[in-house]
Amino acid sequence: MNEKDYFKKINELNKLFVSPSSDLKKRVLKSSKKPEVTRKPQILLSIAALFIFTLAITAIMNSNKTEDLTIVKYVTNQNYVAHFKLEDMNLDKAFFVELELPENIDIVSKNKSILKKKNFMFMWSVFSDTKTVSFPFKALEKGVFDLQIKILDQNMELIETKSITLEVQEG
Amino acid sequence: MIELKLETVIENLLRDDLEKDKTLFYDLTHKSLYNYCLILAHKPEVADDLLHDTYIKAFKNLSTLLDRSKCNAWLKKIAKNIYLDLLKKSYVKNETDIFEDNFFATSVDDNLVMHDIINTMQTLSVEFREVIYLIDMEGVDYTSAAHIIGITAEAVKSRIHRARKKFIKNYNCTSAIPAK
Q: Given an 8 Å threshold on Cβ–Cβ distance, is B104 in contact with A21?
């Protein structure tokens, strides 16, 4: 085969591709349908909107109260940094943090390699003013993940177990 | 003419979002997109999912398509991104698998020369198959192909040159083996 034959044969090959099945077309069109919204009386909608607004305000107020609320910052693709506050804990020495990682969350080490561990432990020195512990991790998908965190003292004695929620979003 | 019609369909879709316009949009774009999905994914069942997800994303983000004349390239770019996501999640393997029997029309089996051509395609990496499909089979220009693949136009030129060379070399090797 030379270059001239190549173009001829490639063109012939193009004609031989199969088409997708008609079922696939139906599937695509069905999935792309927007859910139908039934029209409600205006007053009901207003009440619903007010209710949602109240709920949202309550949620925001509650979230401000939670000291160990986790903020996740997007860094690069799939790489995140989580920060959690431990203000309510009276810790004045270096301590250890042990994380029980859920699936889809991998800890990233300082040299950016991924540590495939279910339980991950690291030492955290005395708090700075922010009283915030940070750790980099890799999330394979977006979503909300529950994380168990154990705070241990220097003798590896358990001080407290906390449950935090990682909300992984796109930045 | 088709491009012009497609642009009108997109306008209608954005304005009214009617089922018939979606069908028309699908009819005008699906063949080339499906072939591209097959080239990427090897397996028809993966290509089906890829095509499905591409349309769902496309219908959702149609308003972000600024240059409507480049709709086909835009769809392929979406398919490529979804494919790369699938690769990351390891749903599909980035290996040169054997093409499924129903990858091409069944009548191919009767044509020995075409069989050799298909066999040669199988020997190429997904990067080479992709560039051959886009440039030589679809007739996509270098700039659009570069946008779809996610490399520069110069890299596309270099890659297609290497892909053609590899194809011809592999074809001459495989066809030299007598058929059983």
A: no
